[in-house]
Amino acid sequence: MNIHIELVKKWLADNDSVTLEELESNEDAAWDATIADIDDDGVWTAMAATVWATMAAAMADWADDKAQRYKQCAIEAIEEYEELTK
């Protein structure tokens, strides 16, 4: 399993279990992994999930409707990742 996806799943299960700083660090690491293996679709979707989760967490306090849409995008990216990596 992808460590970046796992952190996003942890955050989705309990938003208080992962800090915004952890999500931002996870996003940076996912970008690095994508650059290292640019042809892997699974790596791209994992990176997308980290971006959506970080955006949702960052907006949670002041734009709840957008935060919820971004959270849904993270969920959909995880589903796509899981489909790609079956």
Describe the structure.
- There is one protein chain.
- The chain has 86 residues and is an all-alpha fold.
- The chain has one domain (3-84).
- Helix content is 79%, strand content 0%.
- The protein is built from four helices and no strands.
- The termini are close together.
- The model has no long low-confidence stretch (mean pLDDT 90).
| Sheet of most strands | none
Count of structural domains: 1
Q: Give the fraction of residues assigned to helices.
A: over 70%
Overall pLDDT metric: 90
H/E element order? HHHH
C-alpha-based Rg, rounded: 12 Å
Q: Which runs of at least 5 residues are low in confidence (pLDDT < 50)? A: none
End-to-end gap: 10 Å
Mass-distribution shape:
globular
Number of DSSP E strands: 0
The total count of helices amounts to 4
Category from helices, strands and their pairing: mainly alpha
Percent in strands? under 5%
What does the secondary structure layout of this molecule look like, with pairings?
Blueprint lengths: L2 H11 L6 H17 L4 H19 L4 H21 L2
Could you list some keywords that capture this structure?
86 residues, mainly alpha
Brief summary:
The protein has one domain. The protein is 79% helix and 0% strand.
